[in-house]
Design goal:
Blueprint: H1 3-12, H2 17-24, H3 28-36, H4 42-65, E1 69-72, H5 85-99, E2 102-105, E3 116-118
Parallel strand pairs: 1-2, 1-3
Length: 126
């Protein structure tokens, strides 16, 4: 994976260099350096590729669930611990591009449609 491919994919998934640095227990500068000019170490590239696969799977699941909307976190406090809120919003955006599904924030004052998809569990909400 080239530095440009790494950066583009990271940005597409809504992941920050800070988040990856924390996950990999390295400095943020190291992540930035891998994006500029250095090859990502093999163990980290393997982990990153696993994240890419999971991202793609979640996009596919969100698109397949159907319904009229998908609910996403507005902030990291509303997001599950595993990934930042941007990750879930990026998944929803990709599903929206593929299916036209509406994207809604948790906590917004609205009447959710009966067939809303939830980003957190991959199931239709009740």
């Amino acid at each position: 994976m080239t530095p440009a491919e790494f950066k583009c994919q990271r940005e597409t998934m809504g992941l920050s260099t800070k988040w990856l640095a924390e996950r990999w227990k390295v400095s943020e500068y190291s992540v930035q350096r891998w994006e500029r000019s250095r090859q990502l170490p093999q163990a980290l590239e393997t982990d990153f590729n696993a994240i890419v696969v999971e991202f793609s799977q979640r996009v596919k699941e969100a698109a397949e669930i159907g319904g009229e909307s998908i609910i996403v976190p507005r902030t990291d406090r509303e997001a599950p611990v595993e990934y930042p809120a941007q990750w879930y919003r990026a998944i929803a955006q990709r599903a929206h591009e593929e299916t036209g599904i509406r994207i809604l924030f948790y906590g917004d004052e609205y009447e959710p449609p009966e067939e809303s998809a939830s980003w957190s569990d991959g199931e239709k909400s009740d």
